[in-house]
């Protein structure tokens, strides 16, 4: 299986950090569904920036949308 947590640190102008709200909007998945799939290993893990602050790289989320699609609720 493809690594869902690939290194996305290379600079790309379109590779910005997304909040959970933005991830739910882009994927169409609820917050609970995203965390359920993270725990199953079927959704990319967020990056912890500080205590209580997590973000996802937009490039990783776009790649997930293009390859995995929505997994259903």
TrEMBL record:
<protein>
    <submittedName>
        <fullName>AlpA family transcriptional regulator</fullName>
    </submittedName>
</protein>
<dbReference type="InterPro" id="IPR052931">
    <property type="entry name" value="Prophage_regulatory_activator"/>
</dbReference>
<dbReference type="InterPro" id="IPR009061">
    <property type="entry name" value="DNA-bd_dom_put_sf"/>
</dbReference>
<dbReference type="InterPro" id="IPR010260">
    <property type="entry name" value="AlpA"/>
</dbReference>
<dbReference type="Pfam" id="PF05930">
    <property type="entry name" value="Phage_AlpA"/>
</dbReference>
